[in-house]
Structure formats: structure tokens, C-alpha cells
Design goal:
By secondary structure, the chain is an alpha/beta fold. The protein has a single domain, classed as Aldolase class I (TIM Barrel, Alpha-Beta Barrel), CATH 3.20.20.70. The protein contains 11 helices and 12 strands. Strands 1, 2, 3, 4, 5, 8, 9, 10, 11 and 12 form a 10-stranded mixed beta sheet that branches. The chain has a two-stranded antiparallel ribbon with strand order 6-7. Strand 2 (45-48) and strand 3 (51-57) form a beta hairpin. The longest helix has 18 residues, at 141-158.
Length: 326
């Protein structure tokens, strides 16, 4: 074995060009997906207080935003809808003229090459804020599945490129796959939130999407944070049901989970750099405690190094602009 002084590992760290030459993990613009919140109405562009730089848009305000995203060469957006009216069963989610359906058509007209991914979950559309149908004080898994399937179909009919169920109901990938296939949308991929943890890092998102549960919490259906072996069962099941891409959420506190899934399954893997992770960085930067660019790029590199192929992040626009300026 060669040892010091013949072996000097610092040789390849001496200059930026040398470091770049042997770099093992790289974040590329093509890895990024930018989440967008779409609010029903007109003339709406309002900043989310807990997420500086992130806005709610009404569909008519999207063209300028998505044209900028396309110019930055970000390949995809992920849409979350905020309806004007909600009910117990989240019926606005399946409305062909619903807020997300309108947004999909608008984006496809304004930036036709941009991939549009739609979140499939009832929490933004139910008056109680839960991700499924409530019976008594329980979430009824099986009664929720047909609604999720119809919601996904309505997104595909509007022109969505990928549907992304985030509800964590058992069997929802199978229900959605069957609904899409039966109605001529065999070509539409499913990006499954296979491992969505019951995390404390979703707070700013729930403000943005107006989706906080009105009673209890989501621990009976979202994953328990201490568990990792259970993730492998979730992922295996979703792939068996027809998922094309798997997602881990959140990303930063679950890098070990991303690595476990990458080591076990040979499928495209996404990770969601969630709202709380974004908000913490922005707050620290505003206080002068962190260098914004270095911190964000280090975080996204860690997510990529852990094994993610796709990174969903609210930092996507600024990262894309930085990478193009290098």
C-alpha cells in the first residue's frame, strides 16, 4: 500500500480545475424541478411570508413566470392548487375547470416544452385539511382511492406530463395506474411520493397551500420519521403497482433514506428539498449567518450525492441562474 509522502491526496484538490476534473457528484440544471403554488382567481401574485421569494400565482399570472423558468432551462415544474372553495370530500380537485387544470393548460400554451407535474392529493381541497376522506375521526383509505384516481385523470386530460400522488394512501398508485390506462393515458408516468414522512419541515408549505389539518395530524398515514426499513416496503409496493419514479420527502434530514433506496432499487429517484429546509436557509442568510450560494449548492450536492436523480427545490431558479453563470 502506497503511503505518505508518495501518496498525497491533496494533489487533486490544489486548484478549482483539478477539483472539477475529479468531482464525483454534480448538480445539473436538468436535475431540478420547481414547485409552483397556483391560487384560484385572477390577478394574484402574492409572496408567502415564511418562504421569501416564493409566490402564489393565479393561472392568468403564470405565463411570465413559466417563460422565465423555461429560459433558465429548468425542465419541469410541480403544481399545487389552492381552490377558492373546499368541501368534505375535496370535490374541486377533480373539476375539469379547477385551478390546477387551468394552470396546466396555461403553462402548456405559454411554455409547451416545460414538463408539468401535478400533485395528486386532497389536502388542499378538503375543508378538514386531511389527505383523504374522513369517517368519524379516521381517514378512510379505500374510499379515498377513487377520488385520487379521478383527480389524476383530470390532470392528464388537462395536459399534465406526470402525475404525482402525495397522499400516502395504500393502493393509490394501482388505482391511478388503472384509471389512466383505462382512459387512454398509458403513456403518462406516475411519480410516487413513496416515502413521505410525517415531518416538522412542512410548516411553510401548509401556510402556502392553506392545507393544515383542522384536527389531529397526519401520522396515521404519513411515515414515522424513525423508520427506514419500512421505506423499502413502501417503495417496493409502489413500483409493483406501476410507479415510474419514486420520491423521498423531505430530503435533507433523510439523506440516509435516499441512499438506502438508491442502493436497493434501480429506478429513477426524486427527493423533495421541502419548504422548511428552504425557509431555514433563507432566515439564516437574512441574519448574515450563512453564505447563501455556497449553502444552497452544498445542500443540493448532498442530496445528489446521496443518490437522487431529480431534486424538487424552491431554490431551483436561483441555482439555475448560478450554474449558467459558471
Amino acid at each position: 500500500m502506497v503511503v505518505f509522502p508518495q501518496l498525497r491526496l491533496r494533489r487533486l484538490r490544489r486548484t478549482e480545475m483539478l477539483r472539477a476534473l475529479v468531482r464525483e457528484s454534480r448538480v445539473d440544471i436538468g436535475d431540478l424541478v420547481y414547485p409552483i403554488f397556483v391560487a384560484e382567481g385572477r390577478g394574484i401574485k402574492e409572496e408567502i411570508p415564511s418562504m421569501p421569494g416564493i409566490f402564489r400565482f393565479s393561472p392568468d399570472q403564470l405565463p411570465v413566470e413559466v417563460e422565465e423558468i423555461a429560459e433558465l432551462k429548468i425542465p419541469a415544474v410541480l403544481l399545487f392548487g389552492i381552490p377558492e372553495h373546499k368541501d368534505e370530500v375535496g370535490s374541486p380537485a377533480c373539476d375539469p375547470e379547477g385551478v390546477v387544470q387551468q394552470a396546466v393548460r396555461t403553462i402548456k400554451h405559454s411554455a409547451p416544452k416545460l414538463l408539468v407535474i401535478t400533485d395528486v392529493c386532497l389536502c388542499e381541497y378538503t375543508s378538514h385539511g386531511h389527505c383523504g376522506i374522513v369517517v368519524g375521526d379516521q381517514i378512510d383509505n379505500d374510499r379515498t382511492l377513487p377520488l385520487l384516481a379521478r383527480m389524476a385523470l383530470s390532470h392528464a386530460e388537462a395536459g399534465a406530463d406526470i402525475v404525482a400522488p402525495s397522499d400516502m394512501m395504500d393502493g393509490r398508485v394501482k388505482a391511478i395506474r388503472e384509471m389512466l390506462d383505462t382512459n387512454g393515458f398509458q403513456h403518462i408516468p406516475i411519480l410516487s411520493y413513496a416515502a413521505k414522512y410525517a415531518s416538522a419541515f412542512y410548516g411553510p408549505f401548509r401556510e402556502a397551500a392553506e392545507s393544515a389539518p383542522q384536527f389531529g395530524d397526519r401520522r396515521s398515514y404519513q411515515m414515522d420519521p424513525p423508520n427506514v426499513r419500512e421505506v423499502l416496503r413502501e417503495v417496493e409496493q409502489d413500483i409493483a403497482e406501476g410507479a415510474d419514479i419514486i420520491m423521498i420527502k423531505p430530503a435533507l434530514a433523510y439523506l440516509d433514506v435516499i441512499r438506502q433506496v438508491r442502493n436497493t432499487f434501480n429506478c429513477p429517484l426524486a427527493a423533495y428539498n421541502v419548504s422548511g429546509e428552504y425557509a431555514m436557509v433563507k432566515a439564516a442568510v437574512r441574519q448574515g449567518w450563512l453564505d447563501e450560494r455556497k449553502t444552497i449548492l452544498e445542500i443540493l450536492t448532498a442530496i445528489k450525492r446521496a443518490g437522487a436523480d431529480i431534486i424538487i427545490t424552491y431554490h431551483a431558479k436561483e441555482v439555475a441562474s448560478w450554474l449558467q453563470s459558471v
